[in-house]
Amino acid sequence: MQSLTTIGFDADDTLWQNEQFFRMTEKRFAAMLADHAEAGDISARLLEAERRNLAVYGFGIKGFTLSMIETAIEVTQGRVPTLVISEILDAGRDMLSHPIEPLPHARETVEKLAGAFRLVLITKGDLFDQERKLAGSGLGDLFDAVEIVSDKNAATYARVFSRHGDGASRSMMVGNSLKSDVVPAIEAGGWGVHVPHELTWVLEHVEAPVEAPRFRQISDLAQLPGLIEAITNPG
After folding, report:
1. Buried b / exposed e across 128-142, counting CB within 10 Å, b at 16+?
2. Model's pTM, two decimal places?
3. Of 25, 114, 121, 183, which has fewest CB within 10 angstroms of its CB?
């Protein structure tokens, strides 16, 4: 078996908290429109707007904010008060300035692997916001490379691991999203390690590839060095 040389890490909800801020803002948004619809209906319509808009706005807070505005217009049948639009924009700005909260074992795990492997941060979303979060995390200097991409698929991982490593076959991707982090990395020929987070966006849900020989799942990042050791030194 070819030796493992490169480890890719997802950022949001793998190294630091992210989805919780979307959930909090969604509740805030539903309260703004409480006179027009039930919270459950507002959330469902917001999700549909996000689904429609992914191809246009991409992933991240700015697209989410625009989807909230679109949903507010729909829910109020075009009569949304300008004050509500202003509140939505304020909520989006608040999300873009929230403090970075590293997840348990993130720093110690990355520090332990740095130097022994090439470490690549691979994240999708808005460039400015992802750069802000990486800077605030204090983890940036531990990575050999950072790739902020518009989406994650097998071609993305093949390209990134060829650019910053020895190809996908000698690489591993670690993240909380089966759809974005694990499945496409395995499809590219690499290892995919799932680290579940209690909050995962519904549009990131797919079935775990349990039959794939290069699929692994751990409960938290503290288990990652041991897993890598078992893979690189079997028996």
Report:
1. ebbeebbeebebeeb
2. 0.90
3. 114
User: What b/e readout covers 32-63, taking b as 16+ CB neighbours within 10 angstroms?
Assistant: bbeebbeeeebbebbbebbeeeeeebebbbbb
Entry field: residues in the chain: 235
pLDDT classification of 1: cutoffs 50, 70, 90: very low
Cα–Cα distance between 37 and 96 in angstroms, integer? 27
Other CB atoms within a 10 A radius of the CB of residue 12 amount to 25
pLDDT in tens, 126-150: 888 899 999 999 999 999 999 999 8
| b/e map 156-188, b = 16+ CB within 10 Å | bbbebbeebbebbbbbbbbbbbbbbbbbbbbbb
Tell me, rounded to whole angstroms, the distance of Cα 120 from its chain centroid: 14
Residue owning tokens 């690489």: 171
What would the DSSP string read from start to end of 165-201? SS-GGGEEEEES-IIIIIHHHHHTTSEEEE---S---
Residue 2 has pLDDT above 70, yes or no: no
Q: Which amino acid does the sequence have at 10?
A: D
The H-or-E segment that residue 208 falls in is none
* Contacting residues for 115 by C-beta, under 8 A, at least 6 apart: none
